[in-house]
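Reading a protein record of the kind used here takes only a little practice. The record below shows the convention in full.

——
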Amino acid sequence: MNNLKNKFSIKDLENLTGIKAHTIRIWEKRYNLLTPKRTETNIRYYDLASFQKMLNVSYLNNNGYKISKIATLTSIEISDLVRKIATENNLESHAINSFKLSMLNFDQVLFYNTYESLLRDKSFEDVFYDIFIPLLTEIGLLWQTDTITPAHEHFLTTLIRQKLLINTELIQVDAKPKSKKTFVLYLPDNEIHELGLMFLNYQIVSHNYNCIFLGQSVPLESLPDILDYYDDLVFLSYFTIKPVKEEIEDYIKDFDKLILQKSNAEFWILGQMLNSLDLEKLPNKIKPFKSIKEVVSQLK
């Protein structure tokens, strides 16, 4: 078991399980649901077993079980009931909890077993939409609140990246581009959050389009070189944290000047940094998207 995160504050439990801290305290006093431990300096904390129990309690509570009933069950009975409900329905929530637990334990086996169990009922595409996207959103919030360390985030995202690479390679073997349109996928300077872009690469290839994946932190000045090789281009980028709010308008203007005004290319963009733009004032060849699914709908 790792020694990076095996002690949790009540605020950590709130962030990880979605149960408010004051509710956890009430459940402790009224139902003796948890027994917090104390450090040598008398500071309360919860161990990994308590965290796992609260994940399961949260899951049962969200599925209609009253806390008064849950409190009468042993930890083993709670785990068995969670597995039973997950088998019958609501597999997504249970899987997300399992992935969070694998992350906090740096447990690759639990990650792989959870992933393989999902593939019995879902396609890889469905796993990414239904599980990985909400999981990654939650992980981002946990990282921002210091509930998890960068090591935890990197552990999880590296395993998801592996699955993206494997599944993309499988479809690339038989890929037969249906048109001359070529997509160029890249992230701007100092942008490293590439999982969304990697999934778009998977989707574009699976829809039989030619795709050039450039990946993280690509200087804008290097992109015009591609214009010499292809006539029908769509540049596609994912703005998660870059360009920053103060620079994004200038970035769009520079892209328009360097590429769009000198070619027939288009520029498709998505990501949370688009909230800093006035989308109504974008150049005609730039298309903003709210989600990955919206981009994929344009590939049909």
Remarks:
- DSSP finds twelve helices and seven strands in the chain.
- The domain at 90-174 is CATH 1.10.1240.10 (Methyltransferase, Methionine Synthase (B12-binding Domains); Chain A, domain 1).
